[in-house]
Structures are given as structure tokens and as C-alpha cells.
TrEMBL record:
Signal peptide: none annotated. This is DUF72 domain-containing protein. It comes from the Bacteria. It comes from Kineosporia corallincola. InterPro entries: DUF72, UPF0759_sf.
């Protein structure tokens, strides 16, 4: 029984001095993050495919039970829309090989313009992908959430290949009142407004949750997920929960708090290890 929790990134300027020591080199920031959380969203691969050696360094900085959910490059999902992607996909799969068992899932995030009429193309890609990896899909077109026929069609496509459907739950964020900071205003403009989805299709469900700057509102908004995730664990599933806030300043600590709240309902769940200590700054 295992619950993986994490954030949208493993480095953030505001984490200096709390999650990572000051003057920590880029090659060590993931190591300190991985003592706080046991999973991370691999968003960087969406924008550019890293060098294989870089991916090897990610594996080297993390313990064996750490998990990456790695996003497919936007060239594949957004620009080429699954057409003529064989070389891009082959190269990407080669690059991420060093993650080995640390790769929890390859995450196919699709644009809002990816509509029900495009599902056939997704189906073809999923059936061609190598079966040694797990896959997860995130969609943002409203019809997948509001039209039962289109919802069922996408579920069937995912189920045929053991692919998970990743919800990005922003309902608590948009229900929390008008934005109160620049970060909240940016999220208000950019984040999707979709109904909450709580159905797991596989033994490895993945959830993305967006809270508010106000910790009280963030915690209140995730109570639904505490119950759902606890239920998944009791069913024998191994979920992954990613905690987002508009500024992400306290995201690692909040992810750990979520894990603690789930563990209070599922005492058999092992606690997260204590984070690696960050040495306080001294005068000399």
C-alpha cells in the first residue's frame, strides 16, 4: 500500500532555505525535494526533450521508491497532434529510459481544442505505444465531462490500453472567491474550469488538485480527495496526488499534510520519511 504525493516542480525560488539549503546547486535540488515528497510532475519535458544524461541525473538524485509522472513533449500532443510523430516519440522514449521503475506514468496532456472527434487519433497512438510503460491522459474539452456519451467513449479508449484519465480539479480554486494575489489572478485566467472527476480507471490513479493562496481554503477543498484517495488505497490501488497552489510557496509541506490526512483514515499507510534537514544560516 503506497500513496505518492508531490508538486508541479522540484525547484522553486521560495523553497530556498526551507526545502533546499541556500547555495544548493541545480544538480542537488531534486535530491532535497525528494526527501519531502515521493513524486513529482515532469512538466519540463513538455517544453523540451532533455538529454538522456540529464534524465540519468534525475534518477541518481532520487530514492528507488520516488516516482515521476512525465509529460509528453508538446511537439507530439499540441503541434503535430499525433501526426508524423514516430521519430519524436522514439527519441523521447529513449531519453527517459534511465528513470526505469521511477517512471510512474507517461502523461499525455491534451489541449482544450482536443475534442471528442479527435479521440480516434488518441486511440491509435495508445495502441501503438510500448506496453512496458503506463500511460495517463488529461483532457480539457468540456464535452468529455458534460456529455455522457463522449465521457464513456473516452473511458473505453483508455480502458482498452490500461490508460488512466487524470483529473485536474480546480473546483475548490474557482469556488473560493475572487483572486487575492497576482498568482491567483494568473491562475484565474489560465486554469481550466471543468467539473470534478473522481473515477479511477486503473490501479494507479493520478490526481492534480489546485488550491488557493489561503491554506485553510486549500485544505477544505481537498477533503473530497482525502476520502476518495483513502478509498482507493483500501481497494488496493496505489494513487498519486499532486498538490498545486497559485504560488506553490508551501506546496511541499501541503503535499505532506495531505498524505498525513489520508493516513489518519488508513493507518496501515506508512508515513513519509522526515525531510532532509536544511542547515540554518549562520553569521560566521
Amino acid at each position: 500500500m503506497r500513496l505518492h504525493v508531490g508538486c508541479a516542480m522540484w525547484t522553486h525560488r521560495s523553497w530556498t532555505g526551507s526545502v533546499v539549503p541556500k547555495n544548493t546547486g541545480s544538480q542537488d535540488k531534486l535530491r532535497f525535494y525528494s526527501s519531502w515528497c515521493n513524486a513529482v510532475e515532469g512538466n519540463t519535458t513538455f517544453y523540451a526533450t532533455p538529454a538522456r544524461e540529464t534524465v540519468g541525473s534525475w534518477a541518481g538524485q532520487t530514492p528507488g521508491d520516488f516516482r515521476f509522472v512525465v509529460k509528453l513533449p508538446r511537439a507530439i500532443t499540441h503541434e503535430k497532434r499525433f501526426r508524423g510523430i514516430d521519430d519524436d516519440l522514439r527519441n523521447f522514449l529513449r531519453v527517459i529510459e534511465p528513470l526505469g521503475p521511477r517512471l510512474e506514468s507517461l502523461w499525455i496532456q491534451l489541449p482544450g481544442s482536443f475534442a471528442p472527434g479527435d479521440v480516434a487519433a488518441l486511440d491509435q497512438v495508445l495502441r501503438r505505444l510500448p506496453r512496458e510503460h503506463r500511460y495517463s491522459v488529461e483532457v480539457r474539452h468540456p464535452l468529455f465531462f458534460t456529455d455522457p456519451t463522449e465521457l464513456n467513449n473516452l473511458e473505453k479508449v483508455c480502458a482498452a490500453t490500461g490508460t488512466e484519465w487524470v483529473p485536474f480539479d480546480t473546483t475548490a480554486f474557482f469556488a473560493g472567491g475572487a483572486p487575492t494575489s497576482d498568482a491567483e489572478r494568473e491562475a484565474w485566467e489560465r486554469k481550466p474550469r471543468l467539473p470534478r472527476r473522481s473515477t479511477a480507471l486503473t490501479a494507479r490513479p493520478i490526481v492534480r488538485y489546485l488550491g488557493r493562496d489561503d491554506e485553510t481554503k486549500t485544505v477544505a477543498g481537498w477533503q473530497h480527495w482525502v476520502g476518495v484517495v483513502a478509498g482507493w488505497l483500501q481497494e488496493g490501488r496505489s494513487p498519486t496526488f499532486f498538490l498545486h497552489t497559485p504560488g506553490n510557496h508551501d506546496a511541499p509541506a501541503l503535499a505532506r499534510r495531505f498524505h498525513d490526512e489520508v493516513r489518519a483514515r488508513v493507518p496501515a499507510l506508512e508515513p513519509l520519511p522526515e525531510p532532509e534537514p536544511v542547515e540554518p544560516e549562520t553569521l560566521f
